[in-house]
Batch of 3 targets.
Target 1
Amino acid sequence: MTTTFIAGFVVSIIFTFLSLVHFYWAFSGNMMHEYVIPEINSQKVFSPSKLMTATIGFGLLIFAFIILGHIGVFELLFLNNIFKYGTWLIAIIFLGRAIGDFKYIGFFKKVNDTKFVFWDTQLYSPLSLLIAILTILVIYNHTP
């Protein structure tokens, strides 16, 4: 098994786990919920609906499918372009998430005194960067 396959499987496992967490939140779970939304003066920047949270969970599962398709787990030739360009899109999305919006999220955020900031600095942004790096590794070492 090559590093490309290992990177692809690791990223797909991360996406699957994150999708399950989003489905948990969408269906009334609230563990760690107060640490995942940026705040200003103890007010959430936005308040996602259950439908929006479930949609993110479904999108993360699609990302896992795209990565697995890119590394050749699925032999669906008619989807090769979706696997190829979708993997690029995933890398760009998560690199952008790691860099952030220069206000509330990412490595270059300006807000520094909320519950979210600690977790964003310690977990969310580094995880986004890891996902971007592993996805780029998959892109450069395997073409569907």
Target 2
Amino acid sequence: MPRLSLYKPERGKDYQFIDDRIFEMFTVGGTDVNLHLLLGTSNPTDEDATATLPQYDEMSVTNIQDLLFLENRDRKYEEHIYTIRGIYNLQDLELNLSQFGMFLSNDLLFLTIHMNSTVKTIGRKVVIGDVVELPHLRDEYALNDYQYALKNFYVVEDITRPAEGYSPTWFPHLYRLKLKQIAAGQEFKDIDVDSTREKELAINEAIVQDAEANALLSGYETQHFFTLQVDSNGQPELVRADTTAIDASTVKLHGSIDHVMRNPVRDGYIGYLLGDGFPPNGLPFGCGITFPPTGIDGDYWLRTDMIPNRLFRYDGRRWMKFEDNVRMTLTPREDRYTQKGTFINNTNSTEICGEDIPERQSLSKALRPKIDIPHLDNPEECDSNTPGRRE
């Protein structure tokens, strides 16, 4: 008489009988699950392809788009949708307010599916990157203009075989999928995910406009304050109309002398981000990329070729720094004359050998080697320092 054993090297009729009964449990007590199958990632063009962004012969779920960051950003999903059965535990989504902001404390789902029926339906096993849609979680009563229900999508982050999925034959029958809820993004642009991007951009723009109305520039506004220039005794420092300096006692004794207040040699207010590039008390000033050929004691000049713009005051023999225009708009626009606004956010281009080269380039393009060949159209226009010129 042969020895009794539930385990057999082959998956015999015992295994098939148990597997059919397990699938029947999913048919009776499970819920429909829509599967959006990941096909792979889009191939870069010949111009954009690098060692870390390789081109593949065919699209496959095993391809890695970015070998440097190990990311698959431009994912392609199959247009057809497959329906299988799955079981998971319902749970309430709670907001965690103990950190800086609002976070979902339990936005993960663990979905159990039948292994053999799933492979038979979709033609392969479920892989990381596949997107799961749970039809019974659709919201048919959304308060907006949509003519369709809001859907819930989850991406597969991990796949395991649960312990309860093994039968007495020691063979597995189930897959457990770790799912995380997704939002509209670059990875899932092939899937009809409800995006709030336009509304969020409108909200952000409204906040920026209100902030600019309340605080147009950084720092503090002191232009409307009056600055009084005083002498070493703390008395107002006055000058004749012909700029000859006199003291307050002379004016008191000789009230008929024409006199004016001396232009301040510095701001009367000291603090954080006060310089605005304007002289105090509304005094006139000039501006340009160079100083004027002549100047009078007390003249102000704004150098617009410096970042930030710098205001100078002429003391009779030299142009002395008065203040820097450090009060800038807080909005990162191109007219924000700072190193960040003019260098990092630089949108200018330079013509080199008849080709427009953007001055701002991403690190991946800057590190990419170029073909070392001379310019074919007009080699005389290129010198030895021109990129791509071979000596």
Target 3
Amino acid sequence: MFRNRGAIIILFIILIFPLTGFLLWLIQPAKQMNILVLDKTVHDENRNEHNSFFWILHHEKYEKKNADRYDPDRDYYGFFPVSHSKTHEYSIRRIQLGEIDSLAEVLDMIYYTDTYGVYFNEWYKGLKIADRAVKIHGGLNQNDYLLLKNMYQRKKLVLTEFNLYASPTSSLIRLKTEQLLGIHWSGWSGRYFATLDTIRNNDLPKWIIREYKKEHQGEWPFHSSGIVFIRNNNKVVILEKNIHLKIEVPMIVTGDKFSESYNLPEKVHYPFWFDIEKTDDNNEVISNFELFTTSFGDSLLKKNNIPRVFPAAIRAKDRPFWYFCGDFADNPVSQFSACFKGIKKVDVLLYNNRIESRKRFYWTYYVPLVTKIMRNYREKAILNSH
């Protein structure tokens, strides 16, 4: 009888918790904001480059001013897969010059989640990590820049992130964007790989391997995990676990002031793409990337003018502008879980401590940061309207 009672209690908990969470989510009031998302890097219907941001919109019940819900499959500008598996059809929704002023007038927020783009080999041959190929669509262009500038000057909410500046964006657009925002790309980008073994890891871009071998007599001596740095002139520098790195993955470190105000962890590992930026005095650094290197790793960084500590999240001091120095929005997440209030507290179901997983970063850093940024902006806008 005791066993049956225990089973009933467990069944009750399993059923009542999700139901309560859904009902609490359902009754919370909707928040209206006009938001434009730009994503040029959509390889399939999962839309991972912006899908996780739409999770926040859904979870926080943001909707358009006409009360329609945001749809991650339709409500963005950029590359749209139509039928990849059979006909490789696609469409592209571009920001048009004639609509920039009207968009800036009605929008409350823009988020440029990824401008890297889609390439011939990736789309037509299905090679996600392939050799460099002809671009189909990608790079920050003049119209993207003009809308960004218009929103920035109007002091509306602007979120941008990794690959805003890097290839395939032209040097002219990059320079204009850097001057506008006061953030300057060093030319270096990087990523953690759980294994650098070319046989075991198909995610290693072939061109990176080729460029490294060019400078090192055809050798690729790496088998463990590590961090790959790539410069815009194709220079490749690699830090390997134990040899160059005490801790194999970059850590995002946030000081007490911003950790408390944005509900961020003091440290969280970040195992994905990032870039190395410098900022002027008009901005402030909220969090830093930190590399934990050996003396051998330190010397390799110094030799190549790569800092051991560099910005991870930057915000403007006098306006609601942010730059995330990593591919922060690219996180695989199910939209289904968004309609449960309190789901973020069930951490044992959401993430684990695996170094190569982005889930801990997403739930403990990205979600609270973006949620708080949007809440702060909306509350200030409402206050100013009265």
